[in-house]
Amino acid sequence: MIDSNIIKEFLRTTDNDLLFHREGQELEFKEQFNFAGLADYFRDFAAFANNKGGYLIYGVSDAPRRKLIGLSETSLEQFDKIDPEKITGFLLSIYSGNISWEQEVFTHNSLKFGIFKIYQSSLKPIIAKKDEGKDNNIKNGEIYFRYGGRTQKIEYAELESIINQRIDSINKQWIDLMSKIGKVGAQNAAIFDTENSIIEKDDSKILVIDEDTAKKIKFIKEGEFVEKTGAPTFKLVGKVTPIDKVEVIKKIKENLIRDYPLSASEFNNEVRKRVSNVKLDDIYRIIRESDIKNNLEYSAYNFRSLKHEEIFKMTKKIPNGTPSIYKKKAVDYIVKIIENEK
Fold it and tell me: What is the pTM of this model?
């Protein structure tokens, strides 16, 4: 989540109305946002992800005199139209790994600023898979890194450090796995192979399921079987014996797009069509205050992967960059609140 106090600090000015903070390893200023510059922005995304993460802030005049000017009407409109799901898909098509990010329109001194927060990647390095941009600003096979106040191709020392950290991480995972096997005993351990959709112990295949089913099946420690009229169902034949009260639940996700047809930008546009001169900040505020995003009557999280959904179920924390999608009734709800506040 983007911390407003951090953004306010980044936008702090001197007595001469110049920015107090300079661009650095975790900060980059841009004058305006433009879809035509996406390749340059995505280059910075990868550079931040390969280092410690960072912020892109739009609405600051170019060097050498950095001043707060805010987003122009055109830039603000383009920034509002960003579809997180499409941007994430585009990033995945360009780079070898997942880049976690989030965005926000931030109001400061009556000016609007576009904010991107890019998180440090958990699996480095992020590598370009193809050429991208008008001038091939992103090149196939290149790795970008954030140095001081600039983005450039990674140098030997930083790349070696990333490789060594990755090797150490893999070694620790093996040590942890061997430790757990040692605790339960090799004779009691089995392997759940998600790639080939089987659970194996010795030469026995305990459970075999087709690939599509393997991608959908989920295991949790606590839960209950839910019966819903018309919902697809797996029939379980035979006796199931719980082990240490561990229960298994299988749920098939219904078509989210059918039930929640509106993306965040489409949702905002629908509200603005029905309420003249409503500010995006007010829409976001009502969403937060009413906890709309956590109410399935109005909204759902459109997880980008099964892994992200499992993280949410285990930690109750939304993975960064997870877009929300909305039912049409959510528009009615927000509009009603806005009209009541007038």
Answer: 0.58
